[in-house]
Each structure stands twice: as C-alpha cells, then as structure tokens.
Fold this protein.
Amino acid sequence: MKTPALILGGTGYVAGELLRLLVAHPDLEIAGILSDSQPGESVAKAFPHLAPALGELTFCSEAELTALISTLPISALFSAAPHGVSAALIDRLLESAEVAGTAPRVVDISADYRYSTAEAYAAVYHHAHGAAARIKDFVCAVPEHLRTQPAKHVAHPGCFATATLLASVPLLAEKLVSPTIFVSGITGSTGSGRKPVDGTHHPVRHSDLYSYNALSHRHIPEITACAAAVSGIEADFAFVPHSAPIARGIHVTVQATLAPGITITTAELRDKLRAFYSHSPFVRVLESAPRIKDVVASNYANLSATSNGRTIAVMCVLDNLNKGAAGGAVQWMNRLLGLPEHRGLTAVAPGWT
Ligand SMILES: NC(=O)c1ccc[n+]([C@@H]2O[C@H](COP(=O)([O-])OP(=O)(O)OC[C@H]3O[C@@H](n4cnc5c(N)ncnc54)[C@H](OP(=O)(O)O)[C@@H]3O)[C@@H](O)[C@H]2O)c1
C-alpha cells in the first residue's frame, strides 16, 4: 500500500517539482496539496506540464488538509511553503494529527526548522519563529551526511547549502583543509520562486551574470551549523552567490588551503571524495569538470576536485528544485518511512533542456 503524501506551498515551483516526483513514486501517492491562494482550483492549471498525470486533482484549503491529515494513520507531509509561514502551518497540522492520534512524518523544505534555536532563527530572519517548541523534533542535514535515522522530522538544507555541504563536508571531516572555506555559488532563476521581483526576473537575468549578497547571504549561518554538526568543525564559510541566466541548476566552487602537514594529489583527492560518498547513490565524483546540464531535473549531484599541492578546489553541480529541494526531501522522506532512499528518484537528467 502506498503512503499518502501531503504538500504545502501548492502553486510554488518546489511544490510543482514535488508533484512531478510523486506522480512517479512507487510507494507514495498524492493525497492532498494545499494552496493558500487557489483552494478548489485545478492543480493542472498551475502546472500544465503535469496535466497528463494529475487528472482532476484540485488544491485544498488548510481546513480540508487538516481534516485529511487527521484521518490518515500515516502520511508524508512535505512543506514547500515560504519561510516564516511554514513553521506555524506545520505546527497546526501536527497538533491536529496529535489530537486525532495519527502520525505524519514531515520534511520541511523552507528555512523554518533549519536552526537549533528560535533565537538563532530570529537573528537571521528578523521575525520570531512560528513554532519554537517544535524545533527540537527536527534535524537539519543533507541525507548523505547523516547515516542514523532522525528521531521524527527533517529540515532540508537549502539548494546552495546542499551543494556547498556536499563539496565541503568531506574536506572538513577528513581534516584535509584549514577551516576557512571560500565558496562561489551560481544559481538559476527558479531558485527565487514563482513570483518575479527586480533582480530575479527573467529579462533582468537574461544574458547577464552578477553577484549578490557577497559574504552576507542569509544561508551562511545554516551552512556553517550543518557543516559543524556533521564534521565536528566550525569552519568560516566565505560565500559569494551569483545569479545566472539559466532557469534550473546550481554550480558551486569551494576552495580552501590544505591543512598544515597535509599533502594530496588531485587523484588522491578524488579518491577520498569517492570513498566518502561510497554509500551515497546520488553523489558522483567525476574526472572532468561537472556540468549543470548533466544533473538538471534529476536528484544527482556531480562533484569533481583538483589539488595544486597548496590549495584544493571542489566543484559541485545539482538541480536546485530537485536535489536541492523536492528530490532531497523525497530522499529524506523515503528514509523516514523506512523505504530504500533511492525510491522514485533514479530518473537521470534529460541532458538537453
Ligand atoms: N526554489 C528553489 O530552488 C528552492 C530550493 C530550496 C528551498 N526552497 C524553499 O522552498 C520553499 C518554496 O520555494 P519556491 O521556490 O517553490 O517558492 P514559490 O515559487 O514562491 O512558492 C511558494 C508558494 O507558497 C505559497 N504561499 C505563499 N504565501 C503563503 C502563505 N502566506 N501561506 C501559505 N502558503 C503561502 C504560495 O502557494 P499557494 O498560494 O498556492 O499556497 C506560493 O506559490 C521556500 O521556503 C524556499 O525557500 C526553494
């Protein structure tokens, strides 16, 4: 029997990618999708590319989703709602489930449960956390970096964070580098969501490339905390993000100086990364420079690395909507439900988009 899946953040880009993955998932089935703005409307209208797989599915209201979650003994709840909204929405749904005695497992793709304290969250997002008492029930990590089973629920790190963590955590955990990590990240426009704003709108980005929030991006504290939690090292991440004229995909380059006394060749470095990710079906370490087109629309992340004997560079590419959001969330949900982590996620990239 398939586990019913529920989605928050209905008309958003990440919700659309979740739908695309869930209609092909062998063990999960879409039971409800909440839209704050369009309850009762056709889901296929919001996502025409998914129409053949969605049939007559309509968005539900929060009241309808609350009623539904209370009748499902087990469910898989994904939140692709905005930060600042997600925590309280999840909290209300979990409260109703607790009263009804049902047991949803949650993966939150927003930033709301990525911090270990409400104070740390408020310091970055400048508003109070929506459900501070729930924070302890969430763990934040990329699935590749936490082999133990989380207690209850998961906060998925963001897309830039996933790429940066995949590239840098092995360097820290294996004590290969001094703990100052320079990160240059490049992202496509879907990373900013469905609503066009100045600076992220397609005509602005088209044929252009520019940095933003250099050394002050709000995801730096999340990256630092996630890396420290799994590697044991509190590194300094100097992160400069860039907007690229592409719709999907992230390319991150991580650079650091080798730790005193460490010597490593390029071949040895790649082998170290391969060994680190030997149990990770979605991470591949290449001999050549990784390219966004090889992973777009898939849950795979490709890495490569180089050493010149003093500095090492690790490159990572992944799809922001898939591995960096919906795919990573499904990977976590598979584990929360006791399914093999790769279920429903092994489709490869189309190559030409
Ligand atoms: N885009 C990415 O590459 C990416 C990667 C990693 C993580 N994320 C995170 O994933 C989440 C969704 O991102 P996205 O790119 O899909 O954003 P998006 O395209 O802007 O969609 C967010 C959706 O949330 C819903 N929403 C907005 N205000 C709401 C409110 N007050 N109450 C309830 N629902 C509300 C809206 O759908 P309805 O009106 O239909 O409810 C909206 O379409 C965000 O937290 C984002 O930070 C995004």
Remarks:
- The mean pLDDT is 97.
- Residues 9-15, 35-38, 80-83, 85, 109-111, 158-159, 190-191, 193-195, 320-321, 324-325 surround NAP (CB under 6 Å).
- The chain has two domains: 3-140, 159-319.
- The first helix runs from residue 13 to 22.
